[in-house]
Structures are given as C-alpha cells and as structure tokens.
Amino acid sequence: MQNSKVFYPAHLFVLLTCFFSANAAAQSILEKNLQNTYEIALSNHANILAPSAWPNAAKKYQRAMNAIAVAPGEERNDKLITDALAQLTLANNKSLRAKSLIAGVLKKRDAALRANANTMASKDWQRGEKLLKSLTSDLERGRLTEPSKLQSRSSIVIATFDIAELDALTNQLLIRARGAEALASFGNAEKLAPKTFGRAEKSLQAAILSMQQHRYDNAEAIGLADQAESEFKHATQLTLMVQQIRNKQLSTEDLLLIWEDRLLKINAAAGLDYDALNGWDTTAESIVDHINNSDTRIIGLQSLLIESRAYIGSLEDELRLADQQLGGTLAQRDELIVQQEQQARSLERLIQLEKLFEPTEASVIREGRSIVLRLTGLQFASGSSALNDASIQLLKKVDQAVIVYPDSVIMVEGHTDASGPRDLNARLSEDRANTVMRYMISDMRIEPRRLNAIGYGSNRPITLNNSAAGRAENRRIDLVITPTPEASRSPDRIN
Description:
The chain is an alpha+beta fold. It is 71% helix and 6% strand. The protein folds into 4 domains: 2-101; 112-244, no CATH class; 253-311; 348-488, CATH 3.30.1330.60. Helix 12 (252-269) packs parallel to helix 13. The chain is extended, with a radius of gyration of 33 Å.
C-alpha cells in the first residue's frame, strides 16, 4: 500500500508533463501557421487585391499577435489565432482570384514601381493606386462579372500606371541630365566647350518644355533628356581635352598630327592605304566605304550560313535514319534535330507572312516567341471605329496570315497618336481593337477563345508625335500572334 501511494502520483506527474508538452507544441505550430499565412497573404498582395477582407484580417492578426506577446502559450489564445487564420485565408483566396483576373494590371504596376514612380511621379502613382483599389473592390464584391467591363476598367488602370512609369523615367533622366550639367559647369565647360555645352542646354530646356506641353506623351521628352545628358558628358570630355592641350602647350600642327596619327591607326586596322595628300575627308570616306562593303559581305556570309545549316540539317536527318536502321539510340541528336526543324519552320512561316503584305500595308516584327503584325495600312476615319472598304480588303489578307499560325492566340492592340484628350484616345483605341476582333470572329471564323483585344491609346508610340507622318505611324492596329505549344492544338476555325 505504501508503494502504491508513491507510484500513482509519480505516473500522474509524467502524464501531466506529457500533456502540457504536447499542448505547448500544438500552440507553437498554431502560432507558426498564423505567421506563415500572414506572410503568404502579403506576398500575394492581399492588402491591395482584397480591400474589403484585408482590414478585418489584419486587425484579427494583430489582436492574436498581441495576445501571444502578453501571454505566450496560453490556451485562451487559440480562438483568436483560429479566427485570424480564417480571415487571412479568406483574404488570401480573394487576392489569388483577383491576381488571376488582372495580371496585366499588376505587371504594369510592378513596372511603374521599378521605375520609382511612387516617389518620382507620386501624383500619377497615387491616382493609379486609387483606381486599382476601386477595381479590386468591385471585383471582390462581384460587380465585374462581364469580361468586357473588366477589360475596360483594367485598361484604364494600366494606362494610368503607364503614365506614372513614363513620368518617373522622364524625371530620373532630367535629374541625371542636371547632374551632368552641374559636372560640366564645374569643369568650366561653358568657356572651354561652349558649342557642345550650348547644345546640351538647348536639349535640356526642350525636354522640360516637351514634358510640360505633352503631359501624356513623354517619348519626346525622354529622348531629349537622354540627349542632353550625353551632350553634357561630351562637353566635360572636351573640356578635359582642351585643358590637356593647354597644359602641354601644343601647337595647332601638333594637334593635327595627333589626330592624323589616330586616323592612320584606324586606316591600318582596316587594311587600307593612307595618303596624307588626299586629306582627312577622303580617308574617312574610304573607311566608311570599307565598312559598308564589309556589311554587304557579312550579309552574304549570313545567307551562306543559313544554306549551310539547312544542308547540315539534311545530313543530320540522313544520319538519324541510318542510326535507327542500325538500332542505335541517339536521343540528344534527335532532340537537336527537332529543334533545328522547329527553327526552320518558324523561319519559313515568317517569310511566308512577309510575302503577303506590301510595305505600306503591314510590317512583320518578331518579339520573342510572338509575331507582331503591325497593320499600318489599316486606318480609321477621325474619331471613328468603323471599318472602311480599304481596311476590310487588308483584313482579308490578315485572314491568310492567321492561317500560317493555326495554333496560336492573338491579341488585338489598338493605338492612337497623342492628339486629343487621353481618356478619349484610350476609349477610341479600345473600340477600334474590339471592331477588328469582332470582324475576325464573324468573317474570319476564328474561335473567340483565341482572341483578345486591348486599347492602349497614345501610351505606346513607335515614333515621335511632332509630325503628321509620325502621328500616322502611331495610329495603328497591332496583332500580336503567339504560337501555343503543340500539345494544346485544337480546331482553329468555327465550322
């Protein structure tokens, strides 16, 4: 009996110790889950993409963390942690859904952020953030169930962040240009290299003026600011050279001989004879002619290289067949041959596409895996999104082009010049893109699942808007054709 009185309490102590240890471990796991879930939700931008659910989730999370800090390991914290986990999970799920629907918006926001738009173009950035919050709020509440409305709203937000990005880049270039200006001025470039410094000043002032006058088209301002920076740096270099010449007390003849010697070295490297009697201009022209002839030879060599690769490819085919007949296994070689065949087909398709159009109708541009069909010949009446007879005739050629890429998805992009209000241009470009897309569905019998349309307004110019010719180039429809993997092939036309 005495032994039993000692035995049972000892075992009870062990059991209680195990119980509390297990409970503490469970508490620790629960707390870790809470922290992990919070970090995952933030990484998925739940604070942005779930504006209604996130404040409540963040509040419950903070309440649970405060309770843990005051009384760690307490069982009464479990309910707070569980409630916080549920709300964070809800916010995270909503953010994932929004993320999948507005991926383009988030991509453009990230680009603007990388350009430091939040600090370098704070007003535009805040406007974009406000529009994004409104968009995600409506998404969260189920107010944007129609794809067309979602796309239209997304396009506006994308355009706003695009403006912020461009403004930020322009401001950064202006800052860099002013820094180069200060360095040049410190070196006394105004006196020692006045012509170059003067050109730089004019470029800088033109960049500032362009940014003020063309609020929503920064392409010209960016180019001028970059030019100003380069010219200021050039002025600094010239200043240093002038100072060196003065310090060495070189005569005009000494200077000419120095530059003649450098020209001679270039001439010798090109394998040309140098006759001092002909002067520098003749020698320079000879070097330019040599470079141009070299370019012509390079083009010829490139053509020969293409032919050689094709011949090597045919030899590889024969070798592969021979290996198969002999029962050999050359997996790596087979894979290489497949890659060569794919490249050959891609080149063949591109050549076939280029032959369909006149230079005034369209240009074909390769961008990674995608092919951009730039329909410069497809023009709309001012302020209109209706197709005219000439545009319809061009789209009939496009029909033949699309057949070249049967396994593809197509993004129809509408673009305008910078004339008129920006919002109006955005809507007009979207209407025109949708018009083309509807034609491709109704008359070209392309499945709607393969098509999408977006309007960029004047946000993506391909040249300056300071001339009638430039504005005409910027007014365009781009078809971005992206081939899909062969595994996903399916009927490309509606029967």
